């Protein structure tokens, strides 16, 4: 072994538990043993690996090692499962962006053979944070709108989510009718998921060729975001499948009919020879083929 | 004035923008002017107010001042609105726990007179983080399961959410029937919102008087959490209103019929003489009376 496995486990425990003392309790060793193992690992690699903050955090140099710890862990659990004929205690950590989690993603989990995995540990994250979680090994895969491969990961195109500009007929009547759209959109209350959600601005630029500064309601949860639009709080971009029936029946209307914003999605996963990761990737690709527009 | 308002605004800008340079750009002054104002404020109060990290953060001592800045800002906007007869650019930041946001809370926003507020800026937060956001003034009110008043805030009881233990008939048939419930729950896949979600454990202890260690799927979004249960991924605690119809029709069943877990909720808000805060509080109390069990 290039790296002492007890030292590696101890390093991961200090990050996971947030302190040297808590890691000592989990590993049932003394805090000074934890401290010695970390110092030995740091001097072996010539790098500081842990920021001694509260809670403790990995340094940038430590991130690759943290990912190594998770990867070795997964390979070990899978090897034991292969020997014993059944998997035990394997929880797969995966990051998923909010709209995918709320939409096409879930059926993929049901499609992974249960003999390969005990449970799933999903994180709802935007692309900025997903990249960090992949880098430090907190998640082994992510659905993200970011096509730039994270170091050590493989990227596959999943397809596109298409968003339409949606509101109620009453809201349209009150805020939009009887004047140019560019003027109406400058004052009509707009929805946003959070301050990073630029979908509505993209629609506005597409339609008006301008930047506008309307009042913005932020509702950072996919279900409530859609519900607030249905209640008439504002207009916003909603994934087409979620509004198809209501557009047909006239319960909802498009703010800019025929205009849309497409968001391509990607599956980023560790490059690792793991049966469960292969099965999850295949299941996610199938769910994406069923639930997304082709890339 | 006890505190120079330009210094106070500059302090809030440095925290909001994340750096001295970005604050300077927003305030259209030089970075050295920003630095001088902060130094003057810190020496006036004899406390370090800003952690010079990336991004900059308020120190504990600075939190009260940050809240003061937000409060003065709100009072100023309201006073200007009273003079001009209309409100401009007033976005109300409010923290709401996930299940409330997904459930009874939204109608309250529609019930605040629109002449008092421009838009709402919701944060979805658990109680730990809500307390911090109230303390440092990032939000002016919060729906939380924590009854302990945050310093400078008033607490009102809103009512209780009642959670039932829910799964599909197929899942119950496969995992639960034909053996004692305590034994079945030790192996049947369980859902959790995240690692802080103890609702399922509370139900297990109530029913079995024991702690069990079943496989746990984490899905940190209210809508997808419920949908995963409907798809048969695991059993979990769902708010009673969301499953009433499906329990009646037999599409869903209770894991432990007749057993429930109640979560009392509270409205914590700044003690401040603000028309919009009063109106929001009244609207939230009405929505809670309509959507929650009485306290």
Automatic annotation (TrEMBL), chains A, B:
PROSITE patterns: HTH_LYSR. SUPFAM superfamilies: Periplasmic binding protein-like II (SSF53850), Winged helix' DNA-binding domain (SSF46785). Keywords: Activator, DNA-binding, Repressor, Transcription, Transcription regulation. The keyword Transcription regulation applies. Gene3D superfamilies: 3.40.190.290, Winged helix-like DNA-binding domain superfamily/Winged helix DNA-binding domain (1.10.10.10). InterPro entries: ArgP, LTTR, LysR_HTH_N, LysR_subst-bd, WH-like_DNA-bd_sf, WH_DNA-bd_sf. It comes from the Bacteria. GO terms for molecular function: DNA binding; DNA-binding transcription factor activity. The keyword Transmembrane helix does not apply. Residues 3-56 form the HTH lysR-type domain. NCBIfam families: argP (TIGR03298), PRK03635.1 (NF002964), PRK13348.1 (NF009888). Belongs to the LysR transcriptional regulatory family. This is HTH-type transcriptional regulator LysG.
